[in-house]
Amino acid sequence: MPAEVLHSAIVSVLAREIVEGELREGDAIRLEQIQARFEVSRTVAREVMRSLEAVRMLEARRSVGLVVRALADWDLLDPRVVTWRLGGSTRAAQLASLTELRLAIEPAAARSAAIHAAGADRDRLVELAEHLARSANAGARDAFLTADIAYHSLLLRASGNELFAAMQELFAATLSGRTRGGLMPHHPSSTAVDGHLLVARSVRQGDADDAHGAMDELLGGLRRELAARWISPTEERMGR
Predict the structure, then answer these.
(1) Rounded to an integer, what distance in angstroms lies between the CA atom of residue 186 and that of residue 140?
(2) If you count DSSP H runs as helices and E runs as strands, how many of each does the chain have, helices first?
(3) What is the number of other CB atoms lying within 10 angstroms of the CB of residue 87?
(4) pLDDT averages per 10-residue partition of the chain, 240 residues
């Protein structure tokens, strides 16, 4: 197995164990343990630990080694952390939190895009929405996901706000993780498909209020569907 693939695989295994609480806050991990468990060199083990330090899931402590940090310390907006958490047992609660974040950002991004987007971006957004509709009707799940990521990424860029644009990878990880984690219906609802079209057409027409309202309704519908289908009243919202 190539070194990069091996490194990524080990990082994912350890990250998911931390997410699931198999490795708990305060637990220590030493390089020697990683070397022995995965039969890798010290160099590979060190790079694995550095990757988890980089997203603040681990921290170095003298005479102890690397220690698992509290959830609140993690880089929760890093796309890798989002992906790992969406692959865990509390993925529905994680998706609910991410949906609330999207609700705080994407309606405003849609409003800004209606004001600031270049003409080509306005047309492209409508094209992507139409492609989404065709993919949904055909039951082409992978094509739908690809178009959905492209659609929301373009909307964030077209807003003209560099901080909104910086959310592209995070939201792409959210959309991918939602699908791979089994939190996406096999056939997107007609309401969701129509919502994408309405947002795109409002942006193309330069109607900022309608673009904002349509995106707010689209994501609000997603939140309601998530609550109805996946979140039980007793589920921990702040799970790992």
Answers:
(1) 9
(2) 11, 3
(3) 17
(4) 80 97 96 94 94 97 92 97 94 92 98 98 98 94 96 99 98 92 78 97 99 97 82 46
- Amino acid of residue 8: S
Q: Give yes or no for a contact between 25 and 68, defined as CB atoms under 8 angstroms apart.
A: yes
Q: Which residues pair with 60 in a beta bridge?
A: 66
Which residues does 230 contact at the CB level (< 8 Å), separation at least 6? 92, 95, 183
Q: Which domains does the chain have, with CATH numbers?
A: 3-73 (1.10.10.10), 79-229 (1.20.120.530)
The radius of gyration of the chain's CA atoms, rounded to the nearest angstrom, is 20
Start-end of H helices in 20-116: 31-38, 42-54, 79-86, 91-116
Q: Which two tokens stand for residue 134?
A: 């065709």
Contact 142, 161 (CB under 8 A): no
Looking at residue 1, what is its pLDDT? 65
| CA distance linking residue 110 with residue 232, whole number of Å | 31
Residue with tokens 């989002």: 82
Q: Nearest 5°: phi and psi at 142?
A: -65, -40
